[in-house]
Amino acid sequence: MGKSVYEIITNKIIEKLEAGVVPWRKPFNNNGVPVNWKTQKAYRGINALTLEPGEYASKKQILEAGGRIKKEELKNSHIGVASGKCGFTTLRKSKYKKSNFSVL
Question: Among 99, 101, 5, which residue's Cα sits nearest to residue 59?
Fold first, then answer.
């Protein structure tokens, strides 16, 4: 069985702290932080801690923009929280990822 959501998030926080980054502090600019592809707003909370820098979009945003999703990309997973909703989807560097969420 894989790692629990808590273990993955804890490990990410520890990695960032060991690298000298305090992940819950907002930088002076949004460079190097995860942002929504459509709105360009920086993610906050647990998403800011767990997502790598880049652009993310929901499945709905991808389809509304005329994008297509490769079937093999549906198997990728990500952990996070999206306002109490499960099944959040992301687009990172033009690659769609369907998320398997545990809502914390």
Answer: 99
| pLDDT tens digits along 38-75 | 888 888 888 887 788 888 887 778 778 888 877 776 66
Q: The whole model's pTM is what? A: 0.44
Locate 80 and state its tokens: 């996070």
Cα-Cα-Cα-Cα torsion 46, 51, 52, 58, nearest 10 degrees, comes to -140
Other Cβ atoms within 10 Å of 78 Cβ, number? 18
* Element holding 17 (H helix, E strand): helix 5-18
| Whole-angstrom distance, CA of residue 54 vs CA of residue 100 | 19
Length of the chain: 104
Domain coordinates in residue numbering, the chain: 5-98
> If you write DSSP's letter for every residue of 66-77 in order, what string do you get?
T----GGGGG--
